[in-house]
Amino acid sequence: KAGVTQTPRYLIKTRGQQVTLSCSPISGHRSVSWYQQTPGQGLQFLFEYFSETQRNKGNFPGRFSGRQFSNSRSEMNVSTLELGDSALYLCASSLSEGDGYTFGSGTRLTVV
Amino acid sequence: GQSLEQPSEVTAVEGAIVQINCTYQTSGFYGLSWYQQHDGGAPTFLSYNALDGLEETGRFSSFLSRSDSYGYLLLQELQMKDSASYFCAVRDQDDKIIFGKGTRLHILP
After folding, report:
1. What pLDDT, on the 0 to 100 scale, is given for residue B27?
2. CA distance to partner chain A, nearest, from residue B36 (Å)
3. Nearby residues of A94 by Cβ (< 8 Å), 6 or more positions away
4. Nearest-by-Cβ selection for A42 from B41, B95, B99
5. Could you give phi then psi for residue A85, rounded to 5 degrees?
6. How high is the pLDDT of residue B92?
7. Measured between alpha carbons, how far is A44 from B7 in angstroms, rounded to an integer?
8. Which of A12, A58, B59, B100 is most buried when burial is the number of CB atoms within 10 A of its CB?
9. How far apart are CA A101 and CA A85, in angstroms?
10. Distances from the Cα of B44 to the Cα of A14, A32, A65, B47, B101, angstroms
11. pLDDT tens, chain A, 112 aa long
12. For residue B49, what are the β-bridge partners?
């Protein structure tokens, strides 16, 4: 079966711009979560969606937002980009907690 | 605050056994997970401990002790392909997912 698909794989933006990243979960998975990964901070939880509802949110500013559609596909948006937003953004989907999360390959965002 | 602590790096010899520890300071959580990530790759799920005790999956085992706020991942018969970063993770009582900063495992031939 297809895995978690994230698009685009790479992105270069300038400060002040906004960006939208997309994630298609594994078919049947209704839980989608997003993470920011940087060398210094590791994996940091951004937010999680379940059946189109935001289940919880990590400690990120309001510039980071997301949504989930009825087909479980999810998008995250970052507005007013800052240099510090440069990171690998990972999306993961899950059937249940005990089954673990399946991660996509990520979107590498570079802000210049 | 709530955090998971892991050693930043561990080195072991091919064929040996290595243990990667994870200690946590969270007031409550729903279970401990472990993930492996190779350079340039995505994290992949290894194991989940919902209850105290040992879970075994092939060469990998994971252990949880809630009373000691401690867990570990045990890798046996190390192979060069096991060189990667390993992350522990929990869902805390606020329903947020917390990852440790990862342990980079170096394997020597």
Report:
1. 67
2. 11
3. A29, A31, A33, A100, A101, A102
4. B99
5. -85, -5
6. 82
7. 18
8. B100
9. 24
10. 31, 15, 25, 10, 15
11. 679 999 999 999 999 999 999 999 999 998 999 999 998 788 999 999 998 999 999 999 999 999 999 999 999 999 999 999 999 999 999 987 778 899 999 999 999 9
12. B32
Instruction: State yes or no: pLDDT of B1 exceeds 70.
Output: no
Residue A80 to residues A22, A30, A66, B61: CA-CA distances in angstroms?
18, 29, 15, 44
Q: For B35, phi and psi rounded to 5 degrees?
A: -130, 150
Considering only CA atoms, which of B76, B88, B101, B84 is closest in space to residue B37?
B84
Strands A19-24 and A5-7: antiparallel
Mutation target vs B (from A6, A26, A43; most B CBs, 10 A cutoff): A43
Q: B50 at the A interface (CB within 8 A)?
A: yes
Contacts with B51 (C-beta within 8 Å, 6 or more apart), sequence order:
B64
pLDDT category at B25 given cuts 50, 70, 90 is: confident
Contacts of B7 (CB under 8 A, 6+ apart): B20, B21, B103
